[in-house]
Amino acid sequence: MCNKILIGSLILPEIPFSGNSIEPTLADKCCNIYALNDAADLTLLVSLKCSLSAERSNIVAKLLVGNQIIPERVLILGSVQSQNFRGKLSPDETYAFKLETLAERGNGSDSGESSLLEGVDYFPSGSMVDGLAAALLTQCQIRNIRGTLCVSWPDHGSAVVALVRSLLQKKVLHGFDLSSTAGIEDKHSRKTQIKDHAFDSELYT
What we know:
Organism: Linum tenue
Shape: globular
Strand order of the largest sheet: 1-2-3-8-4-7-5-6
Oligomer: single chain
Protein name: Proteasome assembly chaperone 1
């Protein structure tokens, strides 16, 4: 079983400290960075639990990818924005789509390695993703980093939490126990973007 250890926080002017607890909780407005203890690889989990303006997204994305943190592979989790989606989204059904950088697609086809989200459909042509999720994927593309963006619908609820959990346990977080989230409608984490960054262990020994 992997352990999640808080190793840092990204301090942003738009994140108020008032109302936050000493120990991290789902209700806190924060951007925390966790290390997931894994014998094979060092994985960092970055959880942003507050709203962020589109104007600030590029700045924050540059801080999280390619500045002090140089990842080998990145998985970004976000939500489908119905106003930017080309097609119909039923509130009674759950969906997941993906977008990948050229480095992620090329590496998989050249080496025979499967995608992190194998079996997940690509985001429909004509639909759009904006905000921090798009900015993070753009940074990965610019820096030739293997990056995948997974967007799910609806933006919260027990059904979509179960869907995302199953996707993560397949190939991303093999040894991490996510059973504690079963049956929990985590409105805080699904209303904001949650980023999971997988890093080469040699960078953080």
